[in-house]
């Protein structure tokens, strides 16, 4: 637990994007397009896991959420609007500063923290780490810490690129190559196939309950799919 999960180069890279993080046409434009898809999956899993009313506008009222690798708050803010008491942590102080400023302007009370998730002491009903595990020093050690922050009856949701020729082509060769994603954002060697991530979760006493792909098509754009080749989300609970 004493080892850091943070790679300084990754924190510096993402910190450099803080200035226009909330610009839907800026350097983080792809995250803005990805976010509604991720939120759809999260809401679906929340309703199923906690037995919530799918029409409830504040389904997380009375529940706590921890968003790991929160950036400047693209996920943390919707979770707060859903009624959760949100703690959000990121390795880049610049992103946390941007997150605090944006949340303040929106009138949202979110506990933003810069640094290690290991320093967070509480446990949470919902823990999310979206597009994070491929950017850490040791995925196994990172996942162990992540799971330790989950309440016994809580829900964990992860997302990450699959390690396939298609993900390399679309995410790195095309998206980074054409500037749609900032160059250097991804390292294909760090990508994790879903079966490997499911094994890692099982080793930490977690049961994957749903795995869905995020696919792309010219007609639908980014959307939830049974096709896991590009990117995928996993929901898991304690065994």
From TrEMBL:
GO terms, biological process: methylation
Domain of life where this protein originates: Bacteria
EC number of this enzyme: 2.1.1.222, 2.1.1.64
KW Transcription (keyword) present: no
GO terms, molecular function: 2-polyprenyl-6-hydroxyphenol methylase activity; 3-demethylubiquinol 3-O-methyltransferase activity; polyprenyldihydroxybenzoate methyltransferase activity
Record has DNA-binding as a keyword: no
Any Pfam family: Methyltransf_23
InterPro entries: SAM-dependent_MTases_sf (IPR029063), UbiG_MeTrfase (IPR010233)
Pathway stated in the Swiss-Prot or TrEMBL entry: Cofactor biosynthesis; ubiquinone biosynthesis
Keywords per UniProt: Methyltransferase, S-adenosyl-L-methionine, Transferase, Ubiquinone biosynthesis
Membrane-spanning ranges: none
Reaction(s) the record says it catalyses: a 3-demethylubiquinol + S-adenosyl-L-methionine = a ubiquinol + S-adenosyl-L-homocysteine + H(+); a 3-(all-trans-polyprenyl)benzene-1,2-diol + S-adenosyl-L-methionine = a 2-methoxy-6-(all-trans-polyprenyl)phenol + S-adenosyl-L-homocysteine + H(+)
Binding of S-adenosyl-L-methionine, residues: 38, 69, 90, 130
PANTHER family, A to Z: METHYLTRANSFERASE, UBIQUINONE BIOSYNTHESIS O-METHYLTRANSFERASE, MITOCHONDRIAL
The family this protein is said to belong to: Belongs to the methyltransferase superfamily. UbiG/COQ3 family.
Entry function: O-methyltransferase that catalyzes the 2 O-methylation steps in the ubiquinone biosynthetic pathway.
Protein name per the record: Ubiquinone biosynthesis O-methyltransferase
Phylogenetic lineage: Bacteria, Pseudomonadati, Pseudomonadota, Alphaproteobacteria, Sphingomonadales
């Amino acid at each position: 637990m004493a080892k850091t999960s943070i790679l300084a180069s990754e924190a510096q890279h993402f910190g450099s994007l803080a200035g226009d993080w909330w610009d839907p046409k800026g350097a983080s434009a792809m995250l803005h397009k990805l976010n509604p898809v991720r939120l759809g999956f999260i809401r679906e899993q929340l309703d199923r896991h906690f037995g919530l009313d799918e029409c409830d506008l504040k389904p997380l009222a009375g529940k706590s959420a921890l968003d790991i690798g929160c950036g400047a708050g693209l996920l943390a803010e919707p979770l707060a609007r859903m009624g959760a008491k949100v703690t959000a942590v990121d390795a880049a102080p610049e992103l946390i500063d941007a997150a605090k400023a944006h949340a303040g302007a929106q009138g949202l009370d979110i506990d933003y923290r810069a640094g290690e998730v290991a320093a967070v002491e509480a446990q949470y009903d919902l823990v999310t780490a979206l597009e994070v595990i491929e950017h850490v020093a040791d995925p196994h050690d990172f996942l162990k810490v992540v799971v330790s922050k989950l309440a016994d009856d809580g829900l964990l949701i992860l997302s990450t690129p699959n390690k396939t020729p298609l993900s390399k082509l679309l995410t790195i060769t095309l998206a980074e190559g054409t500037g749609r994603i900032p160059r250097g954002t991804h390292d294909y060697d760090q990508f994790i196939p879903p079966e490997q991530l499911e094994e890692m979760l099982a080793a930490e006493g977690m049961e994957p309950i749903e795995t869905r792909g995020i696919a792309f098509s010219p007609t639908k754009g980014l959307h939830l799919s049974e096709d896991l080749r590009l990117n995928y989300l996993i929901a898991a609970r304690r065994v």
